[in-house]
Amino acid sequence: MAEWTIVDSGTYDEATQQALERVLLDRVADGAIGPTLRIWYRDRPAVALGRYQAYADEVAADYVASEGISVVRRITGGGAMFVQPERVITYSLYLPADRVTDDIRQSYSDLDRWAIETLQELGLDAFHEPLNDIAHEEGKIGGSAQRRTDDAILHHTTMSYALDIEAMLRVLRVGAETVSETAIESADRRVARITDHTEVSRSAVIDALIDGIRERHGATERKLTDDELKRAQALVDEQFGTDAWTRQL
Amino acid sequence: MSPRASRKIPDGKLVRVDLDVSDRIDRATITGDFFVEPPSARAAFETAIEGHPRTVDRDRLLDALAAVEATPIGFSIDDLADVTREALDG
C-alpha cells in the first residue's frame, strides 16, 4: 500500500503538462492512485506563470509572441519560470493529504529533501532555502510550489539544469522590487544551474531522483493512462490552453 | 486614480495591490508570487478591501481581511493591509 508509482514518460506541451497536474492531483484526492512521482518532458520552451501573478508584470509579451513561446498559468502559486526542453528538470509529487504535515512551510522542506539529498550525492552543495527554494551558495537552483485540496497535495519543483539565462531575462520581466532586492543582496540571488557545478548529465540527475524515491519508498513505473491523457486534453481546451485562464490577471 | 504598491516579504513572497480609487476603493487587484489556500481567497481578499473610503485606516482593513477564511503562505493579512494603505498614500 505504501508503494509509490513513478510516471517517467511522455513529452507534452506546457498546457498539457499543467492540465496533467490537475488530473493527477484529483486522482490522488479520489483515492484512484497512490503517492506518485512524475518527471516532465517538454517539447518546446514555455513560461509557467504562478497562479496569482499578473501576466503583464511577469512576461515580456512582445518577445514571447515573436518567439512563439507559450505561456500557461499554473494551478499553483509562486513565481514565473522560464522552461526549456533538456535545460530544466521538473518533477511533481502527488500525495494523499495525510502523508504530508499540515505545517505548510515545513512541508516544502520535507518534500524537497529527497531531491536535495540526491543533488548532494551527485556532488552539488544544495540546500533548502525557505520558503520554497532549492539553493546553492551561488544562487537559486530551483523553486517549488504546492496546491492543497482537502484530500491531496501537489508539490512540483523546477530546477535549472542548463537554463539559457540570457533567454530567460528576455522572456521574463524582472520587477522593480526584485531588481532593487537583487542590488541590495548582491549576486547571491542569481540563478545557479546544475551544470555550473557538476558534470553530471541531465538524464543521470533524473535517474538519481527516481532511484531516490525507489530506495526510500519502493516504487513501480507506469505510463499515463489514456483516460488521464483524455482528461488533460479536455482541460487544455477548457482552461489551460485559453487566454481566459492564462491572462485572467 | 489607479495607484499600486507592493512588498517583498523577507523569507516570503511578493504581494502587489492595484487599486481603482475615487472617494472609495472601487476595485482592488491582488497579485504576486505568493501562495494562498483556498485559491478563491485571493478574490475574497480583494472584496474585503473594496468599498472602503479612501481614508480607511489600517486596522479597519485588517478587520475586513481577517474575516476571510484563508491560509496565506509567504505573506500575511498585515502585509496586505500595509500595502493597500501604502497604495492609497501614493
TrEMBL record, chain A:
Transmembrane segments: none annotated. Residues 31-221 form the BPL/LPL catalytic domain. InterPro entries: aa-tRNA-synth_II/BPL/LPL, BPL_LPL_catalytic, Octanoyltrans_LipM/LipL. The keyword Magnesium does not apply. One of its GO terms (molecular function) is ligase activity. Pfam families: LplA-B_cat. Keywords: Ligase. The keyword RNA-binding does not apply. This is Lipoate--protein ligase family protein.
TrEMBL record, chain B:
Gene3D superfamilies: CO dehydrogenase flavoprotein, C-terminal domain (3.30.390.50). It comes from Halococcoides cellulosivorans. This is Lipoate--protein ligase. It comes from the Archaea.
